[in-house]
Amino acid sequence: MSVSGRTALIAGFTLIEMMVVITLMVVLMTLAMPSMSAWVSNAKVRTISNALQDGLRQSQAEALRRSRQVVFSLTNSSAPQTSLTAVANGSNWSINTVPSMTAGETSAFVEAGVLAAVGSGVQIAGPAAICFNSIGRLVANSSTGVTGATCSLPTTTPPTQQYDITLTGADRPLRVLVALGGQVRMCDPAKTLSSTNPDGCP
Question: Do β-strands 184-192 and 174-179 pair in parallel, antiparallel, or remain unpaired?
Fold first, then answer.
């Protein structure tokens, strides 16, 4: 075949050029793998922390809306609306009302959420249960109506209940704090709270 009297050349890669490109791609991917793995682990920790923080805020909002005590608890139960036992480092969370002084009243299920399904392998260290009173503050209660859920007030300075969220392979653990007044916030335990580190922990 000719174009203007000249033979047309077919452009393409030689086998050597193709092997060089593949080798470079393998080297680059190998270098990127550790950082990608850490990014995935950090994303899992962030997702669990957000889910936990949202559940705690929802619990406080329900206490205010209903003008009564509610208990937020971690649990491994997949159906907390029918069978609920509070445990530390649970794979789900549940919100229930606390029985009042009315005779025969029992704890009522409000809402639940999942944790483990969105971040397998993530560990949550903190109290199995936290109670909010009718004005949204933390309150101690040993009769929550939920098996295994005993609420106590924080003894730290400043007074906060805390959940530490970690995962092997993640280089950035997070902490969710619940202040005595009911404020819920997430912070980075590797940093100290200051004007230059607003995301740090106190």
Answer: antiparallel
Question: Tokens for 56?
Answer: 């705690």
Query: Could you give phi then psi for residue 27, rounded to 5 degrees?
Result: -60, -45
Could you tell me the mean pLDDT of each successive run of 10 residues in the chain, 202 residues long? 55 78 81 70 91 96 94 92 90 92 76 81 93 96 92 93 90 94 95 92 92
2 burial (CB, 10 Å; 0-12 / 13-18 / 19+) is exposed
Query: What are 86's two structure tokens?
Result: 């509070």
Q: Which amino acid is at 51?
A: A
Token pair 């959940």 in the structure block, residue: 163
SS3 content of the chain, % helix, strand, coil (to 5): 25, 30, 45
Nearest Cα neighbor of 107 from 76, 135, 139, 73 is 73
Distance CA 142, CA 86 (A): 13
b/e map 102-136, b = 16+ CB within 10 Å: eeeeebeebbbbebeeebeebebebbbbbbbbeeb
Total-model pTM:
0.80
- What CA–CA distance (Å, rounded) separates 37 from 30? 11
